[in-house]
Amino acid sequence: MKCSLGLEKCPDDTLRCFPKIEQPFGIVIFGASGDLTKRKLIPALNRLFEAGILPDRFFVLGAARTNMDDEEFRSRFEAHPDFLRHCSYISVDYHNPESFKSLKNTIETLMKRIDSNNLVFYLAVPPDLYIPILENLSKSGLNEKPARVVIEKPFGKDLESARRLEETLKKYFQEDQIFRIDHYLGKETVQNILVFRFANFIFEEIWNNKFVDHVQITMAEDIGVEHRAGYFENVGLLRDIFQNHMLQVLALIAMEPPSSFNGENFRNERVKLLRSIRPLPVKELENWIVRGQYGRGVVNGKEVPAYREEPGVDEDSNVETFVAMKLFIDNWRWSGVPFYLRAGKRLPRKITEVAVVFKKIPHSIFAGVPSDELEPNTIVFTLQPNEGISLEFQVKRPCPGMFPQLLSMDFRYEDYFGVKLPDAYERLLLDVILGDPTLFMRRDDLEVSWELLDPVLKAWENDPIRFSPHVYPAGTWGPREADLLIERDGRKWRKL
Asked: Residue 370 — very low, low, confident or very high, per pLDDT cuts 50/70/90?
């Protein structure tokens, strides 16, 4: 079978399967002196360049408050010398309209040089800078089509602030110019959920409440807040992970098939699924959601401090570093099927997986093996690390009797394809440049996710004693209350 480019097999470097950008373009990165630019954006653009995907004519203009020249800017990155020749820098005061006039003059000069109007603005800055940057882009006339703007999470701090941000975006840019990025949607393994579901009829036919007992999604990190204490103190894990990554993955697992894989059809079904999630009952919130914070403990053989002992964290902080939640989806496909979600920091290992756990057999025909002792079939999507898919099923153990034994049939990307998967930002930056919105969030995406979580955040804020996070030792799988959340339903978290 040929790939989408007509090749019999994918090249060793999967980026070679990406479409080449024919039209010259320019990208302006606000926050160019920051961590995201250094760790993700420039390396991703450099990889696209080295793979021959970028056109001959393009520019990358870094913009930030730091004073430096082009050479100093280029020296910050490990990248191909020919790529760096396309990079330059300008110092910008985000709150000063005069500064944006200078920025506009620089951009116009660069655009004439590449003879193109294909322009992208990437806001790799803290959220409180979004609005002044957007306003000044408009005042300087830089918001006119076909210019596009990319914003990173968090998209607001609650429903009200998210709506304020959206009103500002709507005031200065049209919806087809706005690209709200959630890098999880750029991951190959996340996109593979869609292929697995909608290209394999055998599985899609059992993807419903007749066969599925429950679904577990785990997003675990073994690190703490690291250098992000200031950010995390203002955000917390519910906003940082659940409002975007977690709910987007849930939507891909549970959504109905779109009529085609294009921007609007795909996003319509995703939003329709999110709207079907049952609101959490605030009066009995403890039965539906668990809030935790890591204490001292041992991770990977090393003693680590408690969250409140981390540099930059308030010694009386009530910010959560762990959340477990039970949700129901009120539609025909999923009615009655619980979705158990958990995410946290300073857990035993880094892993992100989705487990679709099927119902147990109704009756065992094997003597001495009751049906409740037979582990159910499970399909596991491992999103990181060791990306792949596993199918767990029962087989006969080699012995005279009829004794079933659970085994796992595993597919691993690296073992089968023998390639390094592209970074999510490589795919998403390519889509931005090409103007493809499919893997980006729409305004209603954001609103429906905030509508679900906003009552939880308000309840936590209004009653901090009642909802004070349960402390769990670093290096464990969260507080005991998270185990009780699922055990009360006669189930248990998977051993990871």
From this structure: low
CB distance 23 to 9 below 8 Å: no
pLDDT grade for 11, boundaries at 50, 70 and 90: very low
CA distances to 73, 258, 485 from 489, rounded to whole Å, are 56, 33, 8
Q: What values do phi and psi take at 23, rounded to 5?
A: -85, 130
The three-state secondary structure class of 205 is coil
- Say what angle helices 97-114 and 130-139 make with each other, to 10 degrees: 70
Establish whether 495 is an annotated binding residue: no
Active site residue 245: yes
65 is annotated as contributing to ligand binding: yes
Q: Binding site annotation covers 2?
A: no
pLDDT band for 13, please (50, 70, 90 cuts).
low
Whole-angstrom distance, CA of residue 307 vs CA of residue 223? 11
3 state DSSP class of 358: strand
Rounded-to-integer distance, Cα 392 and Cα 481, Å: 28
This prediction has a pTM of 0.90
Give the integer Cα–Cα distance in Å for 483 and 480. Answer: 5
pLDDT at 236 over 60: yes
d(CA 353, CA 114): 44
- 385-393 contacts: CB < 8 A, separation 24 or more? 385/350, 385/351, 386/412, 386/414, 387/188, 387/189, 387/412, 387/413, 387/414, 387/421, 388/189, 388/412, 388/413, 388/415, 389/192, 389/196
Q: Comparing 375 with 49, which gets the higher pLDDT?
A: 49
Beta strands 470-473 and 289-295 are parallel
Neighbours of 309 (CB within 10 A): 12
Give the span between the Cα atoms of 434 and 175, in whole angstroms: 16
Number of Cβ within a 10 Å radius of residue 66? 14
Q: Which of 220-229, 305-314, 396-405 has the highest mean pLDDT?
A: 305-314
- Interatomic CA distance for residues 421 and 15, integer angstroms: 8
Tokens representing 449? 């996710």
CA distance 200 to 16: 26
Rg over alpha carbons for the chain, rounded to the nearest Å, is 24
187 is in an annotated binding site: yes
Domains identified in the chain and CATH numbers: 16-152 (3.40.50.720), 185-421+441-487 (3.30.360.10)
Is 214 among the annotated ligand-binding positions? no
Alpha helix segments (H runs only) across 2-156 = 35-36, 42-50, 70-74, 81-84, 97-114, 130-139
Q: Which of 132-162 are b and which e, b meaning 16 or more Cβ less than 10 Å from the residue's Cβ?
A: bbbbbbbebebbeeebbbbbbbbbbbbbeeb
Residue pair 280/288 in contact by the 8 Å Cβ criterion: yes
Catalytic site residue from 80, 245, 363, 470: 245
